[in-house]
Amino acid sequence: MINMPEVKIGIVAVSRDCFPESLSVNRRKALVEAYKNKYDGANIYECPVCIVESEIHMVQALEDVKKAGCNALVVYLGNFGPEISETLLAKHFDGPSMFIAAAEESGNNLVQGRGDAYCGMLNASYNLKLRNIKAYIPEYPVGTAEECADMIEEFVPIARAVVGLSSLKIISFGPRPLNFLACNAPIKQLYNLGVEIEENSELDLFEAFNRHAGDKRIPDVVKDMEAELGTGNKKPEILEKLAQYELTLLDWIDEHRGYRKYVAIAGKCWPAFQTQFGFVPCYVNSRLTGRGIPVSCEVDIYGALSEFIGTCVSQDAVTLLDINNSVPADLYEEDIKGKFDYTQKETFMGFHCGNTSSKKLSFCEMKYQLIMARALPEEVTQGTLEGDITPGDITFYRLQSTADSQLRAYIAQGEVLPVATRSFGAIGIFAIPEMGRFYRHVLIEKNFPHHGAVAFGHYGKAIYEIFKYIGVDVEEIGFNQLKGMLYKTENPFA
């Protein structure tokens, strides 16, 4: 996967000057050793310059981790820790920070060997709040070397997403299609998150596409598409135009990324796209997303943003789907009931025309867009990648700005069932516990649009922490609450 940051974490140990410095030194060494024994240690850096006891030490440590190329920071309380200096570390570090603390090792060494980091973590969190400093603190942030190593590993995808957002540009083409106001949201929150946005006309894109006619690279891209599609290449006559379009987007990214390192695209795909370009862009969108460059449909800017977050977390292809249609009763009775532990209301179909990577489809075929072909000549609606989505664990989620520029989000973990959809497009039968209540009291009640991002795996824990870190109020992060947990708007007598 391309288009995402590599995280290098600097580990800086801190010590309160009235505690033995050796506690922090030895515990830091044990932590680093535990991490390297359990995980790939190439992504961590042990700051050897000093144990931070003062503001001067803090500056020295910051200079050291910066020189080492670290873009994420772990502040490790080997003992009680200096609440001012340690929080200044996070304040002046240009990147995401995490605070963890050392547990005591032995009941036989609680005099000179007692560090009181359990207490020090309270002061650290209090000072972080006083200074309005963002920092990630795990659910239970005090542990042995091995436990703290696990906490750092859980921090890696969180850090990767936060670093990515700080250098992301979303490139959009055109306004939302008519009757798609649901995908429209103010861009102010993008700037608040550190994300740049470049909005273009689809006419600009059309001009760039025409300039790529006859591009010498087109035959090689066509060969790559043919190899990917295999026997699913049902529309070979359209591949040359699709290759021309793919090169147009890739060149646009290179020419327009500016000072930003990472890019996502919110693309236009209808209503005039088909008649002017002569195809639909779904397959090309799927190919770019499969490489790590998310491309959302219908100029869904916050959909593209959500996809990028999931890509950083999972280091894998994601997709953007309509929360589309209910599962018919006869299909449920025949293929789901008694075989899977879900009620009919806990299932639905996630669908889009053909934007899901071939890596995430059980089978795929290049086809025409059936819905569009009802009103247009079939030959201009070719370019969808159709197939049932691969069964397995998924996380359905979205980050959204409300009309009055407030961040809001949801996360729900579930699975794609190994059940044939009997339908068209890139589509799957999704099952999420208590989906019916979640649909009513989060998706509808909180006015979310019909597009949801899908990460292939259970990543809810990391995504939840990312949403908190970037400033989403926890009251505005919806999730599929289990039975017995009432939503605020749920009728207790229902």
From TrEMBL:
InterPro entries: Fuc_isomerase_C, Fucose_isomerase_N/cen_sf
Name this polypeptide is given: L-fucose isomerase C-terminal domain-containing protein
Keyword Endoplasmic reticulum appears in the UniProt entry: no
Keywords on record: Carbohydrate metabolism, Isomerase
Organism: [Clostridium] citroniae WAL-17108
PANTHER family: FUCOSE ISOMERASE, L-FUCOSE ISOMERASE C-TERMINAL DOMAIN-CONTAINING PROTEIN
Example of a GO MF term: L-fucose isomerase activity
Residue stretches making up the L-fucose isomerase C-terminal domain: 351-476
Biological process, per Gene Ontology: fucose metabolic process
Source superkingdom: Bacteria
Keyword Isomerase on entry: yes
Pfam families: Fucose_iso_C (PF02952)
This protein's GO CC annotations: cytoplasm
